[in-house]
Amino acid sequence: MSQPPPFGLMAEFTEADAMTAAVRAARDAGWTCLEAYSPYPVPEAAEALEVSAAPVGYIALAAAAVGAAFSAGAAWYVSVHLYPVNVGGRPPNAWPVFMPTTYLVAILWACAAALIGMLALNGLPRLNHPAFFAHGFNRASEDRFFLFLSAEDPLYAPDAAGRFLRGLSPLRVTEVRSA
User: Fold this and answer.
1) Over its length of 179 residues, how does the chain's per-residue pLDDT go in tens digits?
2) Sign of the C-alpha dihedral computed for residues 152, 153, 154 and 155 taken in this order
3) Domain at 6-51+130-177: CATH code
4) Please, where are the H alpha helices in the chain?
5) Where are the domains of the chain?
6) Could you tell me if 173 and 166 are in contact, meaning their C-beta atoms sit under 8 angstroms apart?
7) Predicted TM-score of the model (pTM)
8) How far is CA 8 from the centre of its chain?
9) What whole-number distance in Å separates Cα of residue 153 and Cα of residue 95?
């Protein structure tokens, strides 16, 4: 039985600054398919990876606008056309009455869209990933920082990538194989 093909190489670091420096070095060397894993957010590494959270905000804003329009429209249609009731002498289309539910529905839609958008943009849920089986990767949620260079990158050559990563002084470099 042959071994599965290589998925990439994983370098393990003990400090966030070392991982951030490694990400910058990899970007400067021309690597484009790389990922960083850490137990807490590292804004400098995200900046070096050119990762942005802006699309999630736009998704939430659009969903809030659609949800608010839907809620206000539905409340107006029901109050004016389907079930007009004279309450306290107000006209059936008194818009201030619709605002509390419109506001709450907008928030609900924005939260749901932000969650779904974040999961979709991150490719989650992903219950199985070859990186999960890298030696020591279970500490990525505790106290270790990892830089992954993908075999899909045009610069990837196992020996050259290994030398490059070892030159960044990691704790260890591990080959990650496809499952």
Assistant:
1) 578 888 999 999 999 999 999 999 999 999 999 999 999 999 999 999 998 777 999 999 999 999 999 999 999 999 999 988 887 888 888 888 899 999 999 999 999 999 999 999 888 888 888 988 888 999 999 999 999 999 999 999 989 999 999 999 999 999 999 86
2) negative
3) 3.30.70
4) 16-28, 43-48, 54-77, 99-121, 158-166
5) 6-51+130-177, 54-121
6) yes
7) 0.75
8) 21
9) 56
